[in-house]
């Protein structure tokens, strides 16, 4: 049984003041996330990532479909005791200190009284705020609030974590720390589901990713599997001061620098390009396969033409 | 009661205290001190009447303003600032949130009223140089004022569960004004004919009857309050508050937190 099972979850809002019209925020979404996975939910702004997370948290109600987390319905309090959630750009009760806020959340999560103080001190240390526990949240910077957000999500030792844009507002050091924390959570056997539009984070962290755009799932799978499905290219560098016409036809792009030329050629055209260079008597310096990045895959999945062709996997 | 309701209520109370809501007590203390000193100089023989009337009316007005202006933000502010997301993603039911918020603000108003009551009795002691047995009816008037606050808080929460803060304030304040003239509305309904009688009767029973909860004038005149009125008002206020809270819960249970 998958830890997170999304079964045709969809959301349509009624917008407009007088004549209400339907606005589809999420088309029927089918997705499974296995136990112990770090799962990246990728998409540009307005793609439907936050809507999906809000549906899973029971903050908005689905127009259709359902979802189960740890085998329980999304509004089951027993399930909610076992999950942690970090909303996008979190904001907290700013009249409380960080320790008071975490203690309040620990109470709501049902953490036993004798354990509360220890857990609060522990998570504050874990997110690097051990010296800020007594400071009121209204004095916190954006990055510090993000850390508090992460602390409240992991406070009660949940089995499944949902992070909505967890790197947002963090400096490079903070992003690195969050990445380390997510890996640590994975090592502890936790399941992490996080949304982001920062692809490098997803590429370095995730076991699997899903790409969503305009409320529609465009692809899902392991990063290597997804990127290998994109036709590869090779980079050919040779000595020369011009690009022969035959090479121009075969290259997707080329650059001339001093006495070397660098051209990108589709894998299928690699042999023809090498033959052309030999015919011209040009000396090849190197031929290197270009690794397809998640970004390239992502951009392809977002192209309207491909969307129309139906690239759902 | 669920422990989570208690935690939410405690946090709501703490928010009111830290947001300096109880600072209104300073204004109240100044008002009562000024009144007590002035009344002694300008009124002869009716000092007690003036102090009780002014004191209890001030308790009511200060409390109603707090109930409206904090009550309307109890839910909408949490949605707007998204603080609700990290609460409702925990094992907290939506009804627990609404009920906890209600008790938090109700607790704030009760504490506020208790401090003000001390102020009223202190001013009364200053002008009368002692208490009389009939002054005990002031406690009943204060009890009725607290019942009024409970109803106002529940109504503010009800409107706040589906409307914007501005509209909630308008609705709640309008109901307070209409409810203060509920007896007159019932009198008008009794005299009206046909459809207007039907409409006026419906409106008279729908709006909160704050007229019967207002015994400030009779208490100031040291007139007793009947036990029957105490019981009927208690029952009425609790049922009305309960119904308004149920309405707030029913609406909030279905609300999308966009």
Please tag this protein with its features.
heterodimer, A: 313 residues, alpha/beta, Rossmann fold, Alpha-Beta Plaits, 6-stranded mixed beta sheet, B: 258 residues, mainly alpha, 0% strand, globular
Walk me through what this model shows.
The complex is a heterodimer of chains A (313) and B (258). Chain A has 313 residues and is α/β, with parallel strands linked by helices. Chain A contains twelve helices and 14 strands. Chain A folds into two domains: 4-228, Rossmann fold, CATH 3.40.50; 233-290, Alpha-Beta Plaits (2-Layer Sandwich). Helix content of chain A is 35%, strand content 30%. In chain A, the strands form three sheets. Chain A has a six-stranded mixed sheet, sandwiched between helices. Chain A has a four-stranded antiparallel sheet with strand order 2-1-4-5, covered by helices on one side. A four-stranded antiparallel sheet of chain A has the order 12-13-11-14. In chain B, 78% of the residues lie in helices and 0% in strands. The longest helix of chain B has 35 residues, at 94-128. The model of chain B has no long low-confidence stretch (mean pLDDT 90). Chain B has one domain (3-253). Chain B starts with a helix and ends in a 5-residue tail after the last helix. Chain B is built from twelve helices and no strands. Chain A binds chain B through residues 13, 54, 57-61, 77-78, 80-81, 83, 85, 87, 89-93, 95-96, 104-105, 107-110, 149, 152, 162, and chain B through 3-4, 7-8, 11, 14-15, 18-19, 81-93, 254, 256-258.
Mean pLDDT across all amino acids of chain A: 88
CATH architecture annotation of the largest domain in chain A? 3-Layer(aba) Sandwich
- Please give the share of residues in helix of chain B: over 70%
The SSE string of chain B, one letter per element, is HHHHHHHHHHHH
CATH superfamily of the largest domain in chain A: P-loop containing nucleotide triphosphate hydrolases
> What does the radius of gyration of chain B come to?
20 Å
Note the beta-strand portion of chain B.
under 5%
What name is given to the CATH topology of the largest domain in chain A?
Rossmann fold
Task: Tell me the domain tally of chain B.
Answer: 1
The largest beta-sheet of chain A arranges its strands as: 6-7-8-3-9-10
Helicity of chain A, as a percent range: 25-40%
